[in-house]
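About this split. The held-out portion is used to measure sequence recovery: a designer receives only the structure tokens and must propose an amino acid at every position. Recovery is the fraction of positions where the proposal matches the reference. Here is one held-out target exactly as it appears in the evaluation file.
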């Protein structure tokens, strides 16, 4: 008897309950969008410390890149062409201390890794 009453109460509760529906309108100043674009362009031109973990022909660089992405999934990995070889570089560190800390960790797995300093701007 108790289970049938509980079942009836639950069915009635489910039947008469309604989900909330609504619409969200975000109103923001267009200057915020402009500011975000300026911020993105400033960061794309910023100089970063990077760690080079290997180099060689494209096939070797791609293999190294896939290994690095498995070993360090939270670091951005990129293959740069610097004639005549492809170079696998990871990370984008603004702070030298952070770069050196991660460099020490990377060198355990990749002993030939090198810490690359940002190029000095000629402005």
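Reference sequence for scoring:
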């Amino acid at each position: 008897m108790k289970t049938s009453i509980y079942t009836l109460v639950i069915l009635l509760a489910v039947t008469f309950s309604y989900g909330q529906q609504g619409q969200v309108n975000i109103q923001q100043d267009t200057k915020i969008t402009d500011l975000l674009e300026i911020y993105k362009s400033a960061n794309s031109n910023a100089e970063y410390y990077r760690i080079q973990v290997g180099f060689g022909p494209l096939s070797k660089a791609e293999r190294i890149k896939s290994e690095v992405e498995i070993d360090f999934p939270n670091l951005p990995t990129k293959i740069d062409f610097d004639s005549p070889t492809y170079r696998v570089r990871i990370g984008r560190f603004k702070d030298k201390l952070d770069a050196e800390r991660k460099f020490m960790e990377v060198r355990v797995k990749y002993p030939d890794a090198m810490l690359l300093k940002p190029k000095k701007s000629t402005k």
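Annotator remark: The CA atoms of residues 34 and 40 lie 10 Å apart.
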